[in-house]
Amino acid sequence: MSVEANWQEVQTNIEQACGNCGRDLKEVTVVAVTKYVTIERAREALSAGITHLGENRMKGFKEKYEAIGNDATWHFIGSLQSRKVKEIINDVDYIHSLDRKSLAKEIDKRADSPVSCFLQVNVTGEESKHGMALDEVEGFIEWLEDYPNVRVIGLMTMAPHVEDEETLRGTFRKLRAMRDRIRDKQFPHAPCQELSMGMSNDYKLAIEEGATFIRLGSSLVG
Hints:
Strand order of the largest sheet: 7-6-5-4-3-2-1-8
Order of helices and strands: HEHEHEHEHEHEHEHE
Strand content: 15-25%
Shape: globular
Number of helices: 8
Radius of gyration: 17 Å
Distance between the termini: 9 Å
């Protein structure tokens, strides 16, 4: 299917999910995850009206950024090696995978201006997933106060790849509760208003549980 046709279906699903929980459509930003598709397919997404593109590999990001540049808003959503930060930091608009002090230090050192970052949280403690534990989040954010180029706009997680709806909702609810806790502390360097959660298999549930950024690959661009 074309990206435009997929996009129409996704928009219908988002509208339905927002209706189910009384939210405004404008609260949800869709990031088209283009890591497995061509530059042409990424351009097709832009033509369909999707302006946020996400990459999780350095090579893929650089190739697409070189071709598309500032026509897109760029999200780096994969694990980021500290030594690679300097190669992309002033080209990305959002980083979804801040999960350790060494990475924060490198972002602060290399960025020309504050970078919008999500802390990646491993809510379920799965060994196969990156991210800090929930009980590490608050201390890490307090520690970040001395790094002005790291601006924590929200929290990010990846839910387990299961079909059980309550397991998925429980994961999203835990992240939202932590987001609310940090947001209410009103840290100047960490407004923490956003929630990056929900992928192709679970984004409707994520929206109902408060997601403000959803990351869609297969259901949107293939």
